[in-house]
Amino acid sequence: MGYGLLGGKLGHSFSPQIHGYLGEYEYKLYETKEDELEAFIKTGGEAWQGLNVTIPYKKAVIPYCDELSETAAKIGSVNTLVMRDGKLVGDNTDYYGFKCMVEKLAVSVKGKKAMVFGNGGAAPTIRAVLEDMGAGEIITISRKENNYEFLSKHLDTALIVNTTPVGMYPNVGEQPIMNPPIGDKIITLADFKVCEAVYDIIFNPLKTRLILDAEELGIPCINGLLMLVAQAKRASEIFRDVKIDDSVIAKIHDTIEAEVRNIMLIGMPGCGKSTIGKMLAEKLGKTFVDADEEIVKCAGKSIPEIFADSGEAEFRRIETEVLAAISKEKNQVVATGGGVVTKAVNKPLLRQNSVVIFIDRQIEELPTDGRPISQSRPLTQIYNERIDAYRAYSDYQVLNTEIEATVDKIMEEL
Questions:
Q1: DSSP state, 341?
Q2: Is residue 253 part of a domain?
Q3: Catalytic annotation on 251?
Q4: Which of 14, 80, 337, 413 is positioned for an S-S bond with 91, CB 3.0–4.6 A?
Q5: pTM of the model
Q6: Same-domain check for residues 336 and 371
Q7: Alpha-carbon radius of gyration of the chain
Q8: Pairing relation of β-strands 27-31 and 50-53?
Q9: d(Cα 266, Cα 355) in Å, to the nearest integer?
Q10: Same domain? 270 vs 407
């Protein structure tokens, strides 16, 4: 008898991987339409023994439960179902998961004003955790309750939590604070001058636009992957009536993150990104992607031809378009073009699912053949124009003096 995840759209779920690390049991994805929900729930005990429940069914499954745990009953949201002695029991392990997320970020919530975006299945759980941990005023922002026009009245918020799917794959780049503009004023995270912490329960991408904005502002922030792993650990305990040591949470989190994250290589043309990238991909078991090759495929012509026919501006437009498509995906090593850092719009694309590594190299060792920008003016001038961006966009900087040694350095950093 197996277990699984019940939801509306589940194509990119990490849950089977996580449960694979928690125990040797079958765990399937059950993507179910609303009009199929009742019939599927009634197969419990035959088709499945336990389920996690995600969007949009955390409240919808409650009427089918014979019993609710104390936590699920209090919150009015169920994300875990288990067949026990012929009865369907509804529980809520999201509470445990979000509490772990708050504790991991280690920002005190006691007495702080909090803003929760969304009022769907996860929101009641998040509010319950904040209340139980002693938060002060908790404001809910949604289209049905305090709508987005109320944002300007709560700029004194210290804690911001996103429980909506805004910014989730494949609609990356969106974020709830700017959705939609408030009259003539677009409120951004920077307007929350006393914000101390940002929590986004989305984990795909690893860094939503909300998380990236928090990073830029130096605000402590965390995505939802830890919550997902922690609640899965608690669900596995409930499914099988076992105790699992809490130490597995960090281990599984770090393993999953390492498996899915991209490695983005940036640096001057000719610094060795492609050669290093291929070796890294082989060592890490990831797919290698050369962004320049993808640009050539997209444009149907070589890079020198793009420059000759349409100029640098058109090349940069195509580069951003290609980067946006590449950066949505996972488990890749990507060698980018040398000028990818010249457009600020590329920074969040580079960072949303990736560790970004700046490959530096001595200027006199950089080749220029077949590189339109490198031939357009002195390399020293180009390097000086870009060096601040290379450093600002990257998590690590590695000097490439010899390819294999450079790959070893990167492996150590990772």
A1: G
A2: no
A3: no
A4: 80
A5: 0.91
A6: yes
A7: 24
A8: unpaired
A9: 11
A10: yes
Residue 309 lies in a domain: yes
Q: Round to whole Å and give the CA distance between 81 and 239.
A: 8
**CA 273 – CA 340 distance, rounded (Å):** 13
User: What phi and psi, each to the nearest 5 degrees, are found at residue 181?
Assistant: -60, 150
**Cβ atoms < 10 Å from Cβ of 34:** 10
Amino acid at site 171: N
Return mean pLDDT, the chain: 93
Name residue 98's amino acid.
F
* pLDDT at residue 180 is higher than 60: no
Which residue is catalytic, options 33, 42, 58, 113? Answer: 58
The C-alpha atoms of residue 331 and residue 200 are separated, in whole angstroms, by 22
Tokens of 9: 């759209």
Q: If 0-12 CB within 10 Å is exposed, 13-18 middle and 19+ buried, where does residue 325 land?
A: exposed
pLDDT higher than 60, residue 148: yes
Q: Residue 142 — left, alpha, or beta (φ > 0 → left; ψ -120 to 50 → alpha)?
A: beta
Are 327 and 354 contained in the same domain? yes
Q: What is the CATH number of the domain that holds 276?
A: 3.40.50.300
Q: How far apart are CA 320 and CA 61, in angstroms?
A: 42
Lay out the sheet containing 50-53: strands in order across: 27-31, 3-7, 50-53, 80-84, 87-91, 67-68
Is the peptide bond between 304 and the residue preceding it cis, with omega within 30 degrees of 0? no
Q: In what order do the strands lie in the sheet with 396-399?
A: 287-290, 332-335, 262-266, 354-360, 396-399
Closest CA to 156 of 112, 117, 116, 119: 112
Same domain assignment for residues 76 and 116: no
CATH number at residue 47: 3.40.50.10860
In-domain check, residue 101: no
* Domain limits for position 151: 108-219
pLDDT over 80 at 145, yes or no: no
